[in-house]
Every structure is written in structure tokens, then in C-alpha cells.
Amino acid sequence: MKPKYNFFKNTKYALSGVYCMLKSETSFRIELFLGSIFIIIALFLKTDILHKILLILPIFLIFITECINSAIERCIDLVTKDYHILAKETKDIGSCAVFLSICLCVCIWVAILVKILF
Q1: Which Pfam families does the protein's record reference (predicted)?
Q2: Most CB atoms within 10 A, among 22, 53, 98, 104?
């Protein structure tokens, strides 16, 4: 039987995940630090709310993909500690997702800043 949905328990699990990411993932801490700075910059830019949202959303995409990538890596480590080409490729593909989200974020920031400044 599936357990009953409980908003407060689910929120506790999510916050536990945030704590776990902050405690054990250096890349997440770096991305969170830099992302926070850019979110503050976005909020203070002299532009309309739509541009601010478009600047902030891809930053959260980076956080999300980093969490998914870390979950994938932990699942692989749970299954095997031995080297296996498929395990390596799976981890590399997860890292690729994070890299692509960062590239997307940079492209959006450049495009919007060019529009604002020029």
C-alpha cells in the first residue's frame, strides 16, 4: 500500500536533500554561491520583470540539473564501486546536462545584457 501524501513530510525530505547537497557537493555550493550573486544582480538591473525572470530561471535550472546529476552519480556508486564504461558514461552524461544548463544560462544572460545595455 502506497503511503498517504503528506506535504510537511515531503518538504522535510526535500530540505534534507538540500542539506545533503550543501554538505557533500562542492560544485553545488559553488553554483549556489555564484547563482545567488547573479540573482541579486538580476533583481537590481534596470529592466522589466520579464527580463528579470528570464535571467533567474536558468540559474535555477543549473541547481536542478546539478541535483539530478548528483542523484545519478550516487545511484551508480550504490550499484558498483568498480570501474565500468557504462557507469563512467552515465556519470559523464549527467555532467553534460549540468554543463549544457550552464551554457544556456550564459547565453541567456549575454543576450539579455546586450539588449539592456545597447
Answers
A1: DAGK_prokar (PF01219)
A2: 98
31, 42, 58, 66: the active-site residue: 66
- pLDDT tens for each residue of 8-35: 999 999 999 999 999 999 999 999 999 9
Give yes or no for a contact between 61 and 108, defined as CB atoms under 8 angstroms apart: no
Q: Are 73 and 91 in contact (CB under 8 A)?
A: yes
d(CA 82, CA 66): 23
> Which pLDDT does position 2 carry in this prediction?
76
Does residue 83 have a known ligand-binding role?
A: no
Verify whether residue 89 is a known catalytic residue. Answer: no
Question: Is 91 known to sit in a ligand binding site?
Answer: yes
Q: How many domains does the chain have?
A: 1
Contact 73, 94 (CB under 8 A): yes
